[in-house]
Amino acid sequence: QIVTSIGRMDMIEKFEDTPFEKNHQSTVADDFYYRVYEDKWPVCDGHLLFVPKENSVKFITITLQATVQYGEKLVEEGKIDGYHFGMNMREPAGQSVMWPHIHFMPRKEGDVEGFPGSVRFAVRNGRGPSYYLNHPKYKEEYSKLHQHILDEEGFIRDE
Asked: Most distant CA pair in the chain: distance in Å?
């Protein structure tokens, strides 16, 4: 069976009903398949939302592709050094606007002190903090930067 749409009962049914559209959020770009907005609560300068105009695998895939192309263009132009992009799908993953949307966050070398870590805290005892706290290359730096993790229940550090 091929899945053509993503969602469930509590999902927003139409693009026009998304808060991005209803609140007239600042638009950066517009395409047949997606619209790009400035994030209302940006994590960093340049934090954008790539929002498919239809809740379907096709539109989401095209929007993901556009997100990566945008990031690569900025890297090639020397405007950024890297980028994060991702989606929170369903409430347990942190989705609060119940319409698919892709977060894009530009990164610059040295924009945070030490090892950037980023999404490493998503899964307890996964290949996250415990992995980096024991990593041969980053162990000391990560331990200093995230000392509080050593004391949290559930994290294991090899000695």
From this structure: 55
Q: Can you tell me which residue has the tokens 């996964």?
A: 126
40-67, pLDDT tens digit by residue?
888 888 999 999 999 999 999 999 999 9
**Residue 4 clears pLDDT 60, i.e. is over it:** no
Residue 73's closest CA among 99, 36, 116, 112? 36
DSSP 53-69: SS-BHHHHHHHHHHHHH
Sign of CA dihedral 136, 84, 70, 57: positive
How many CA atoms does the CB half-sphere of 105 hold within 13 Å? 13
Per 3-state DSSP, the chain is made up of helix, strand and coil in percentages (nearest 5) of 30, 15, 50
- Alpha helix (H) ranges present in the chain? 19-22, 57-76, 129-133, 139-145, 147-151
pLDDT at position 44 is 83
Q: Which amino acid is present at 146? A: H
Return d(Cα 55, Cα 26) in angstroms, integer.
21
Q: What phi and psi values does residue 127 have, to the nearest 5 degrees?
A: -80, 65
